[in-house]
Amino acid sequence: xxxxxxxxxxxxxxxxxxxxxxxxxxxxxxxxxxxxxxxxxxxxxxxxxxxxxxxxxxxxxxxxxxxxxxxxxxxxxxxxxxxxxxxxxxxxxxxxxxxxxxxxxxxxxxxxxxxxxxxxxxxxxxxxxxxxxxxxxxxxxxxxxxxxxxxxxxxxxxxxxxxxxxxxxxxxxxxxxxxxxxxxxxxxxxxxxxxxxxxxxxxxxxxxxxxxxxxxx
Length: 217
Prior knowledge:
By secondary structure, the protein is an all-alpha fold. It has three domains: 9-73, no CATH class; 78-114, no CATH class; 120-216, no CATH class. It is 58% helix and 3% strand. The protein contains nine helices and two strands, in the order βααβααααααα. The chain has a two-stranded antiparallel sheet with strand order 1-2. The longest helix is centred in the last third of the chain and has 37 residues, at 180-216.
């Protein structure tokens, strides 16, 4: 009745009124997830197939985990409407809106991040990179385009095609940078994105992901 053209979609407001008027026995967490999915498409519509899949749990394991995570009590208001936030909370909210497409995911991220245990991995990696750069800068007396210095490639840390057998170089090159610009950009991203992510997902997941990226690079 609500979809006479049989498009498979209805407006999210229509669906919300339907749930309210008929008191459908739908899990609040799954309802939140469905609304988040609706907010993720351009028209802001609820997809019938999404509803069927959601209720029957015909989803990937990651989607099922997301539904399970939705069992925790979260405020239903839009995250942008939160008032009275300090600087750090506003920063976390900004990161959430920059990297996550769905409101449900943003709220989950915002309320899941923890200061304990502290995000030591990303902070330690960034600090080590800065220290190594300063040491090589002083040693080579060069702070921009250090790779152009004849002594740069003699470092035991850089990746060198002629020394592939030295397996540690596939990891330690992450401490070497071309110059101030690359170091500054990397450090900024690691602190702005990596630290908040580590506060949600923990040191083991983030360290594994980071080192996997280093090896892939």
